[in-house]
Write a structure and sequence with these properties.
176 residues, alpha+beta, TATA-Binding Protein, six-stranded antiparallel β-sheet, 20% strand
Length: 176
């Protein structure tokens, strides 16, 4: 089995479990991003700079994990062209994603703990950064709210994200 196949199977199994398609009947879980949008990069703006994205997120006091870079360092095939995850001490999570099927098109999602209290400054910073600093076109901007009933699911997903950071640290630690 190739590493890619194992990774894809793991992703599918995780997605099925998270969204209530496991062996046991579970109540439906859903969580909407506070802010979500697509952006298109063409010409000189393609591909967008991972480094610039990481610097923005670190300047906003987020811990940043570039999963595509980590996969390349570990010589693991990875199905994304961009997959940057960032979390902070306020338990906010930001994701920048791109897939090869839609070359030049990327997505951004910002989540905050429910009930939603929009981080207007951060939301604006993300939109301005993508359009001005990266030079990409922004489209399909949506803002959503989550009620208190989404808190448990948010907590589950945030713990998973924290686990990605621990795994990345373990993968980068030299062997004993």
């Amino acid at each position: 089995m190739t590493r890619t196949f194992v990774l894809l199977v793991a992703l599918c199994v995780a997605a099925g479990c998270l969204y209530g398609h496991g062996a046991q009947a579970q109540k439906e879980k859903s969580l909407s991003a506070d802010l979500t949008f697509l952006f298109d990069c063409k010409g000189d703006a393609y591909p967008p700079s991972d480094g610039d994205i990481e610097i923005l997120l670190m300047n906003e006091q987020f811990r940043v994990l570039n999963k595509v870079r980590l996969a390349k360092e570990q010589r693991i095939d990875y199905p994304f062209t961009m997959n940057i995850v960032a979390i902070d001490n306020q338990r906010r999570r930001i994701e920048f994603d791109g897939v090869p099927v839609w070359a030049g098109t990327y997505s951004v999602r910002l989540y905050t703990p429910p009930p939603t209290r929009h981080s207007s400054d951060l939301e604006n910073d993300l939109l301005v950064f993508v359009s001005k600093k990266l030079g990409c076109g922004v489209r399909q901007v949506e803002r959503h709210d989550n009620g208190e009933d989404a808190r448990e699911f948010f907590d589950e997903l945030f713990k998973i994200a924290e686990g990605w950071f621990r795994q990345a640290e373990d993968m980068q630690r030299p062997p004993i």
